[in-house]
Design brief:
The chain has about 800 residues and is an alpha+beta fold. Helix content is about 30%, strand content about 25%. It has 20 helices and 28 strands. The strands form seven sheets. A seven-stranded mixed sheet has the order 3-5-1-12-9-10-11, sandwiched between helices. A five-stranded mixed sheet has the order 7-15-14-13-8. A four-stranded mixed sheet has the order 18-26-27-28, sandwiched between helices. Strand 26 and strand 27 form a beta hairpin. It is globular and about 90 Å long. The termini are far apart. The mean pLDDT is about 95.
Length: about 800
């Protein structure tokens, strides 16, 4: 019997959760293989130091130790350096990044030697007795200082720390920056943050020496990209290398990378002939897993006398860290396309300079360039509002770009797929009781209360769904932006989906099952979703940049249409009618005008499998494979409103309200979308109020544990009040847009705008991130002329 119920657009409970909440998940650290060895990496205690010698002899004498090697000892294991796949300009200056450094340590935590032993504890103990002699060097810890001619060099062979420069813009009327009635010059800084997934990284490599076959289980977002790039680093042929991403406990961009430890596990499994496992502890995670942000913006904003935004001109300095990781130089470029925000600007220019430093590499952290851009734009809009003496809401109203349902070119060079900014904005103000809070703000200021309130707005756009492939090629990105899916209708009535995207909490199993259920007339519980294993799902471009639903979901949609086309042919044959006489309605093929003549997809799957009576030339088995390469990015948008109360005597800020109205096109599962927005907002609030990677003047990481790096819990979060508008994307057949990064993009400026707004009447115009009580208190004190 066909299932007539529709599931797309409903809050179907997540299929993934049963195993996770009952402790039956399978994470890398749960995996054990016979005769398995454990890897420990010897890491530099110095931010910048020449390696004079490495002596592993004492480690080799330790109990359980099977091997110990310096970077020089393992030099012959590598077919190439660790990958960087986004050399965004022809004149970018790059240096080799090896899994273990051989010449000098370039950040605290840089790997200089490796030990494998029978147990994790034995490997750790042996790593402590490896004797490394260092010659300490002055570190580069400030990106502006690092650009000076007399600065120490992170990579001597490059001759400079300023290794990449990229710019674009020039569209429209660039004269607005000289002729506009309002011209403001601003500076905004964003410190480094750490992605902090609940599961640190881990890798387990096994080998079948006689066959030269390797399997790597790794906590990653990108099994397919990892297979390709690790093949290049280790020399293992791609067809001999299987990558498996089991359950992944969060990623937030940290696992959108290929790391030294993954390559080491493979190389040492090859060298020893035994499985090798490495599990990252939390301190390692903060020291050597990538950081995000770490930027300085110098901004020119042009506006009319009424405050209508006319243009942005932005120069950004970006901390690249000690090495290029997979995408490091491309992360600022991702933000470079959205420095006009949702506004109808006439002029636009963006450029960035990437500077190497003696700190951990930077790369993608949730939002990847877009949060940095949105922060600059939305802080600048509020600054313009104060300058012209108007409400920030009114400045946005008069500045929004017009709505459009089809793709429309924008000044920065890409086409925005669809937009309707004002309804989401007005809905957010309505839900937040915006006008009432403005009245309360006036009353508190008039009464001189210690606790003042501020209302912060953030209207964002996001370039998501990293595609299409031809544009990525023009941007010098090494991979494509397509995605793949396979659908197989089993003769048992079940459906198996094999997808190229690899989830780490987004709910792919549930969402993809809903899409398939509606298209095939089955129940989501009868749909199995396979992913994250390059032997089972050999085609894919993985998960990042909010691309999964808009590209992976679209690939699935195409595969489902192929299934229905093939099933239609078989149904027409069995019902002895022309294909044009059939309609797919209420979950089944029905003969028009003959309601008793019906065939369901499960029934046809049995017929295709038995092959007893098939049309001439019809291939048995109801299976289809499809890829999807979109014509455009998708452009989600929305408005977030934060209401904050600031104690002007202590600087403590408490968030009273947080309202978010987002537009991600057509919604497949509202509950999952809400969950993604919740997580994104929490991440963004954490960036605004709590999280900051800190190094001291010697390059020592002083925020290397959860006692110093403040990751907030639910107790620190306000209640999130959510709503949506729905502007379908014309880019894909589902009309969907990404949502996983939206909250992280929108929240930081909403929170900081609220805090600044609360104390702006005291003369405060800027409070850096994170807005700790001390930082807010100092801003108030300085605005009052130093009075406590």
């Amino acid at each position: 019997m066909a299932i007539t119920e529709k599931f797309v657009g409903t809050s179907v409970l997540r299929k993934e959760d049963a195993s996770l909440i009952t402790g039956q998940g399978s994470f890398v650290d749960n995996l054990t293989l016979p005769d398995m060895l454990h890897l420990a990496v010897v890491r530099s205690p110095f931010a910048h130091a020449r390696i004079v010698s490495v002596d592993v002899s004492k480690a080799l004498e330790m109990p359980g130790v099977v091997g110990a090697w310096s970077g020089a000892d393992l030099a012959g294991e590598w077919a190439g350096p660790l990958p960087m796949v986004w050399p965004i300009t022809e004149d970018i200056k790059t240096s080799d990044h090896w899994p273990l450094t051989k010449d000098k340590a370039r950040f605290q935590g840089d790997g200089v030697a490796a030990v494998v032993a029978e147990s994790r504890g034995q490997a750790a103990d042996a790593a402590e007795v490896v004797d490394v002699e260092y010659e300490q060097l002055d570190p580069v810890l400030d990106i502006e200082e690092g650009m000076k001619d007399d600065s120490p060099l992170v990579h001597d062979e490059l001759g400079t720390n300023a290794v990449v420069h990229w710019s674009h813009g020039g569209g429209g009327d660039q004269g607005v920056f000289d002729s506009a009635p309002v011209q403001l010059r601003l500076r905004f800084e964003a410190p480094r943050i750490a992605p902090s997934p609940i599961e640190p990284r881990g890798a387990l490599a096994s080998v079948v020496p006689a066959m030269g076959e390797f399997t790597l289980w790794t906590s990653t977002q990108i099994p397919h990209i990892a297979r390709f790039t690790l093949s290049g680093t280790t020399g293992i042929p791609e067809h001999k290398l299987r990558i498996v991403a089991p359950d992944v406990g969060g990623a937030f961009g940290a696992k959108l990378n290929v790391y030294a430890e993954e390559a080491l596990c493979l190389a040492l499994a090859r060298r020893t002939g035994r499985a090798v496992k490495w599990i990252e502890d939390r301190s390692e995670n903060y020291a050597v897993t990538v950081h995000g942000r770490g930027v300085i913006h110098d901004v020119e904003v042009a506006a009319t006398e009424e405050g209508k935004i006319l243009g942005f001109r932005v120069k950004e300095l970006c901390d690249m860290g000690a090495y290029f990781q997979l995408l490091t130089p491309g992360i600022p470029e991702l933000g470079g396309w959205v420095y006009m925000g949702p506004y109808d600007t006439q002029g636009y220019w963006y450029e960035f300079t990437g500077v190497m430093t003696n700190m951990a590499p930077t790369d993608a952290v949730r939002g990847a360039g877009r949060p940095e851009a949105t922060y600059v734009v939305e802080r600048a809009v509020d600054t313009v509002a104060r300058h012209v003496g108007k409400d920030p809401a009114e400045i946005r109203r008069i500045s929004f770009a017009p709505s459009h349902a089809e793709a429309k070119p924008s000044l920065m060079g890409l086409q925005i797929d669809s937009a309707d900014y004002l309804p989401a904005f007005e809905r957010a103000l309505e839900l937040a009781d915006y006008e009432q809070y403005r009245k309360e703000q006036v009353a508190r200021r008039d009464s001189g209360e210690v606790k003042q309130i501020g209302i912060g707005l953030s209207s964002y756009i996001e370039m998501s769904g990293l595609a299409p492939s031809n544009i990525l090629g023009a941007l010098r990105y090494a991979a494509g932006g397509w995605e793949a899916a396979q659908v197989r209708c089993q003769p048992s009535g079940k459906v198996t989906l094999t997808i190229g995207t690899s989830p780490h909490g987004q709910g792919h199993d549930t969402t993809w099952s809903q899409i398939a259920a509606d298209e095939l007339g089955v129940h989501p519980d009868d749909v199995e979703v396979l992913h994250g294993d390059t032997s089972i799902a050999p085609l894919g471009m993985d998960t990042y940049g909010s691309r999964s639903i808009s590209i992976g979901g679209a690939a699935l949609h195409v595969a489902l249409q192929k299934i229905k086309d093939k099933a239609r042919t078989l149904a027409a044959h069995e019902l002895e009618v022309a294909e044009d006489d059939l309609e797919f309605r209420d979950g089944a093929f029905r003969v028009q005008g003959a309601p008793d003549k019906v065939r369901t997809i499960p029934e046809l799957a049995v017929s295709a499998w038995t092959a007893h009576d098939l049309p001439e030339g019809y291939e048995p088995d109801l299976t289809a494979v499809a890829t999807w390469d979109p014509k455009n990015f998708t452009w989600p948008f929305g408005t977030h409103v934060c209401v904050a109360e600031v104690d002007t005597e202590t600087g403590f800020a408490q968030l009273l309200r947080y309202v978010a109205v987002d537009d991600c096109g057509v919604v497949i599962n509202p509950m999952i979308v809400d969950g993604q927005v919740h997580g994104g907002i929490a991440h963004g609030i954490a960036e605004a109020l709590y999280e900051e990677v800190i190094y001291d003047e010697a390059g020592n990481l002083v925020s290397g544990t959860l006692t110093q790096y403040l990751v907030p819990s639910a107790a620190e979060m306000p209640t999130f009040e959510l709503d949506r508008t729905e502007t379908p994307s014309p880019t894909n057949p589902l009309g969907v847009k990404g949502i996983g990064e939206a909250g992280t993009i929108a929240a930081p400026p909403a929170v900081i705008n609220a805090i600044v707004d609360a104390v702006s009447h005291l003369g405060v115009t800027e409070i850096g991130k994170p807005a700790t009580p001390e930082r807010v208190w100092k801003a108030i004190r300085d605005a009052r002329g130093g009075a406590a």
